[in-house]
Design goal:
mainly alpha
Length: 83
């Protein structure tokens, strides 16, 4: 039951992160990037330690989406400072 609830939670988080990645115009605020990277890294580690592999994989994929969003955010910030 815990694994199912975690899977649903992380699937929703993955959907939101993937939607942000697909929306190429979306630039996440730095605090949002840092908070989500921390949250999904911890969620992935906790799920793996509990041997809940599906939630661990879902949260790991969400983490990777937030890494992509972090790159986009910092690239945007670097470009806006040079203007």
């Amino acid at each position: 039951m815990v694994s199912a609830l975690l899977s649903i939670t992380f699937a929703c988080g993955l959907f939101i992160a993937a939607a942000h990645v697909i929306n190429r115009r979306f630039v996440a605020p730095v605090y949002d990037v840092l908070a989500n990277l921390t949250a999904f890294a911890c969620a992935s580690a906790a799920s793996a330690l509990l041997r809940h592999w599906v939630p661990a994989a879902l949260s790991a994929f969400a983490f990777l989406c937030w890494v992509a969003l972090a790159v986009r955010t910092f690239t945007h910030l670097r470009g806006s400072r040079s203007i």
